[in-house]
Amino acid sequence: MKLWGGRFETGPSEVFEQFSGSLHFDKRLLDADVRGSQAFARALERAGILSTAEREQIVAAFDAICEESRQPGFFQDATDEDVHTLVIRKLKEKAGAVADKIHTGRSRNEQVSLDTRLWLRGVCDYVQALLVDFLSTLLDLGEKYPDAVIPGYTHLRRAQAVLWPHYLLAYFEMFQRDHQRFGYARRAANRMPLGSGALAGSGFQLDRQAIARDLDFEDITANSMDVSADRDFALDFLYAASTTMLHLSRLAEDWILYSSEEFRWLELGDGVTSGSSLMPQKKNPDSLELIRGKCGRVIGALNSLMFTMKGLPMTYNRDMQEDKEPLFEAADQLIACLEMAREVAATAVLNPHAPLNDARESWVVATDLAEALARTGTPFHQAHKLVGKLVLESVKEGKEPEDWDADSLQQFAPEFTPEIAAMLARLLDPKEGMKSREIHGGTGPQHVQAMLQSRRALLRTNLK
Ligand code: ARG
Q: Are 159 and 433 in contact (CB under 8 A)?
């Protein structure tokens, strides 16, 4: 069955039908298509185009289609052009002649926009719930080791000591912003397009606000040409998905490193790692590697739709049918990665001694020393230079911070008076310097505790 054909003398060629058909992927929109069509039937009733009996018959037939679609093999033999065509064919089978009225003043251009918006709304809700779950697991992992010290890195060189939960809370902020981005993407999708017709606005006096209320939309779209031409709402979702994947990929990379034999900080659960077919000793972080790898696919989906949309003339063009596969692909990969990441975080075990030792054997305390000197009145530039010399000397002689004490520091430089040397000696322990960072946003232990609590409280409100 076709939703067009009157103007043609011959039907489409087999090659063209194969080439242009989208049912094999847009069948995922069936539920949305049916819900939207039922609401449209009610709108047609309000506009006096369908009688109450006709509307009832159509709505019931749509329900039956939904139910039937759950049966295995439902899509197998369907050769319809797209999901919208399939649904209408089924409607005709079930409701007979009255089905011919359902497209009164409705175009597939607005229908595909409506269906995609409905589907995306649900995905945004689901992804936000997964993010809340994942964030809760990250907080658990921070709360398990509230005092663990790790060297923080810049340039992948040990930089300054931070608390383990402070590091995890950095990811909390990123994923919380991602959560907000899905809120934005949801709002962008949450505009009701029906009534726009193909591009010029419906020729029937449909109560668009009533359709919006029926389908739980926040508002209606403002311009019919915009509706036919717009895929911004899909791009907003893909951007939110890409940013989330990007954050997941960075976390994955960190943990691949941190669980390596070079770091030995983290032990990944047996359940999320795999062995080697040849090397019996191997325990590989495949779950994290795949998360890192799948990030590329999702960013690819964003790029794919960006390129599809670039330079398209107003309004609808069939090119736009190419929006769905990247959308579905991005949603599937993102959901799978969030579920996987949650399990990795839930089963990871920190070995706090390893990062503490790494912090102790390196000069991550150098900044603490320089800042302490500056607090005694030494200009920071001078303090930086003095500590730099101390580090250079230590590096040359193979000394670690703990090889120094107040006496040897006092002998090192005339600026190091007995009081100053005693203060510096105390700061050779990375746990000490952190106490000077009780600034909002810093790794001061009390502040980090407070942040763990505040973020936990935020999660209890579902990040609203
Ligand atoms: N299947 C199409 C799409 O996904 C919607 C149909 C509109 N087709 C058309 N030739 N106007 O974009």
A: no
The pLDDT value given to residue 100: 92
276 is catalytic: yes
Question: 438, exposed or middle or buried, with CB in 10 Å at 0-12, 13-18, 19+?
Answer: middle
Among 19, 316, 323, which residue has the most ligand 1 atoms within 8 Å of its CB, making it the best to mutate?
316
Contact yes or no for 193/227 (Cβ under 8 A): yes
Report the DSSP beta bridge partners of residue 349: 267
**Inter-residue long-range contacts of 43-46, CB under 8 Å, 24+ positions, other chains counted:** 43/194, 43/206, 43/207, 43/210, 43/211, 43/214, 44/101, 44/102, 44/104, 44/204, 44/206, 46/206, 46/207, 46/210
State which H helix or E strand residue 14 sits in. helix 14-20
Report the predicted TM-score, pTM, of the whole model to 2 decimal places.
Answer: 0.96
- Radius of gyration (C-alpha) of the chain in whole angstroms: 30
Is there an atom of ligand 1 within 6 Å of 82 CB? yes
Structure tokens given for 135: 């964030």
Q: Which residues of the chain have pLDDT under 70?
A: none
Peptide bond into 315 cis (omega under 30): yes
Task: Estimate to the nearest angstrom the gap between the alpha carbon of 138 and the chain centroid.
Answer: 15
Catalytic entry in 51, 276, 408, 454: 276
Distance CA 368, CA 430 (A): 8
What ligand 1 atom has the least distance to the C-alpha of 82?
1
